[in-house]
Amino acid sequence: MNRITSFEQYLSEYKKSVENPEQFWSKQAEEFVWKKKWDKVLDWNFTEPNVKWFIGGKLNITENCLDRHLAERGNQTAIIWEPNNPNETGRKISYKELHSEVCRFANVLKNNGAKKGDRICIYMPMVPELAIAVLACARIGAIHSVVFGGFSFQSLADRIHDADCSIVITADGAFRGAKDIPLKSVIDEALQTCTSVKKVIVLKRTNTEIKMQNSRDVWWQEEIKKVSADFPAEEMDSEDMLFILYTSGSTGKPKGVVHTTAGYMVYVDYTFRNVFQYNKREVFWCTADVGWITGHSYLIYGPLLAGATTLMFEGIPTFPDAGRFWQVIDKYKVNIFYTAPTAIRSLEAVGLDFVKPYKLDSLRVLGTVGEPINEVAWNWYNENIGKEKCPIVDTWWQTETGGIMISPLAGITKTKPSFATLPLPGIQPVLLDESGKELLGNNVEGRLCMKFPWPGMIRTTYKNHQRCFDSYFSHYHGYYFTGDGCKRDENGYYRITGRVDDVIKVSGHLLGTAEIENAINQHPDIVESAVVGFPHEIKGWGIYAFAIDDHGRKDTDELKKEIIATVTKFMGAIAKPDKIQIVKGLPKTRSGKIMRRILRKIAEGDFSNLGDISTLLDPNVVEEIKTGRIN
Ligand code: 7RM
Question: What's the pTM value of the predicted model, to 2 decimals?
C-alpha cells in the first residue's frame, strides 16, 4: 500500500489534504473492502457538532483487519503474545487462526444473546482473547467498551452502567508482575448495581477460585467448544458506532467517547503506516494496554488493518526485572517499539546494567505517546535504546482524536527533542489565545484547537451529545478544543506543553481530579477533598490530595493509609494519591467554588503569586494549608 516516502511528498500531500480534503481521504478509503461504496465523503459542522464521513458506505472493519489479508498472508503471524511470566510459553497466532478464533467467538456472543448495536463491556488481562473479544464484537456489530483492568469496581460500575452493557467479557484474574489481580470478583461487586448485564463470559487465565453465578456466568473455554469457525461479518454503516471508550473529564463522571466504523478505520490505518513507516513483515510492539485508546488504535486495529505482526505483552516493564522490555525486543526481533515517556524515565532511573545484556539491533523506529517527553529522557532513549540509528516519533493525540495527529514521520521529518513536530496530512491545528483569536505565524503559544474535521475524530459522547458539545466545541466557537496548551516554534514545529484543564496525566494515564475526589470522599471520615497535580520526576505528574477530616482524627498516618486503600478499592491503584494533606478547610470563593489555582501552586511548593485571595470565603485557610504542605 502506498505511503509517503519523502519530506517533499509530505509537504505536497499536506497541501492536497487541506485544499481538497474529500478527494484526499477518499483516495485513502479506496484501499479497503467495502460492501457498498459511500455516496458522499463528508458532512460537517463544529457548532452542533455533526461530523459524518463516507456517508452511505457499508462495511465491516474485521473484514479489513482479517478476511482481506487471508489470500496474501494467511500464514503470517498476526499476533505475537508474550506472557507475564517469561517461563510460560507464548503464542503466535496467524491471520488465518485469528480469523477463525474471531468467528468462533462471534458465534459465542450470538449464542449468549448478543445482537447488533448491543454494548459489551470487556474487562480483561492482556491476553490474545482480549483482541479476539474486541474483534468479535466488531464482527457481529456490537459496540465494545473496554475498561482498563487497573480500574476498580466503582469506575467499572459507572462505565457499565452508563453504556447499558448487556454482556461483560472478563477473566478469573490477571497476572501483572508478581501480582494476581482478581478481575472476576471486581466484576461481581460492580454488577450488584448494574442490572443491564445478562451474561458474563469468563476466560480461565489465573485459575483463581471464583464464584460463578448460575445462568449469568459462563466459561469462555466451554462456550467456544460449542461453535463453528464460520461467521459472515455483519454489514455496518460507515457511521455505525464501533466502540465507546471512557475518558476522564474535568468534572463529574467519565465521558463515553464514541468512535464510528469507517472514519476510524481509514484514519488509524493511514496514521499507522505513515507515522511508523511500517514495512511488510516487520514486528511492531505497542506497550499500551488495550484498555486505553493507544491499545485500541495501535495494538489492535492499526497494525491488523495494515497486515502487520503486532506484539501483545501481558506483563509490566519491571518484572522479573527492569530489562524485560529489552529482552522481549531481542527475543522477537522487534522492529518498531512504541511506549510512554513514563516507562522510559523509570527504566532510565534504574541504570544501564539492565540494557547492556541486550543487542536491540532489530530496532528501526522508536515511538512515544501519552505525555510530553522531556529532553533528557528523549536523549536517553535515542542513545541507549535506538543507538542513535532509530528515528523517534513523539506522537501527540487523544482518545477523542482516534489516532495520531501531530508527529514526525519516521525517518522523514527531522526530529527535535520534546517536539511532536508537524501535523499529519488532513490535520489543521491552530493556536488560539484566551479570547479565541487565532495566533498566526510562528513563535507563538496558545491553546491547541482543530479547525477542520478528520475521519478518526469523536462523533459524540455516549447518550449525551450536549456533553460532547460542552467539552470540546463550546470554548471556542467553530473549533474543536483539545484541552492542551501548545507552542509553535520558529520553524512551525509544535510542542505540547500539557493540560490546561482539571485532568492530570499520571504516568501517561488520563485521570480526572473529580473522579479521584469522589473516591476519596467514600472514606467515612472525609467530608470533602480537592485533588490537583504536581510535577513528578518519573510519572510526569503526581497526585496531591487535600482532604477535610470531619472526625478530628489524630492519627493522620493511619487515616492516610485508609484513604489510599479507599481510592484503590473504589477507583483503582492507578489513582492512588502520592501526597495527602489533611486540612481544616479548602480555599473557596463566596459562591462555593474551590480555587484550584491556589492549591496547584501550593502543591508545587510555589507560594509566590498566589493571586488575589481576598475574594475567598475564608482567606485564613490558605495560611493553614501552606504551613501543612507535604514535601
Ligand atoms: C493517546 C493518549 C490525551 C492527552 C493529550 C495530552 C497528552 C498525548 C502526547 C501528549 C505531549 C505527546 N490519549 N499527550 N500524547 N502530550 N506529547 N506526544 O494519550 O486521551 O489518554 O490523553 O495526553 O495532554 O491531551 S489520552
Answer: 0.97
